[in-house]
Amino acid sequence: MKNALRYWFKTINVTLIAVMPTLIFLPLPQRAIAEDPGACFMITTSGKTVGLANLCGGITITPPSNNNNKVFRIPIKRRLGGTPIIDVTFNDKQSFEMIVDTGATGTLITQSMASTLKLESTGLMQAQIADGSQVQFSTGKVKSIAVGGVIANNIRVAIAPKAGIGLLGHDFFGNYDIKILEKEVEFHHR
């Protein structure tokens, strides 16, 4: 029995020695708690992550993952006629509520938004609105539009003098599949 125990202990010691280096050198899960931007953040045009906890007041946004199945989840603040309204950040500074308009080819902002952004008119655009009529809008160019981790740069936007709220269109989310849930909008990277 003693020989069997000695053999067993020697086997365990050899096994532990063989296993220990494997455990030490296996890659650990990538989790950088110290660098976690929190639930509310934005990514600048240079790729820098900036925490926005002071501005968000309890908004929960899932940060982008490092895999190919990126999903950005944005909370719905409220709905207008059943259509979701979310917070959208312009030029890394100003946030506005906007309607996620899956039927709009372009992004439309209000005159008040344009004034806040100090946006100058750079041209005109003809557009067909939901009732089929043609209207003309002034246009301007914004440096960036961001929602969660989704960012679009140098976007030409229409400025609607009579609109009460802006519309976020396909020029912003065209590279994403959108899923509208009860309490959030998901942007699935294609």
TrEMBL record:
Report a single Gene Ontology molecular function.
Answer: peptidase activity
Instruction: Report the protein name in the record.
Output: Aspartyl protease
Q: Could you tell me which species this protein originates from?
A: Komarekiella delphini-convector SJRDD-AB1
Q: Which GO terms fall under biological process for this protein?
A: proteolysis
- Protein's UniProt keywords contain Metal-binding: no
Keyword Protease present in the record's keywords: the answer is yes
Organism lineage reads as: Bacteria, Bacillati, Cyanobacteriota, Cyanophyceae, Nostocales
Q: Which Gene3D superfamilies does the UniProt entry name for this protein?
A: Acid Proteases
Q: Which UniProt keywords apply?
A: Hydrolase, Protease
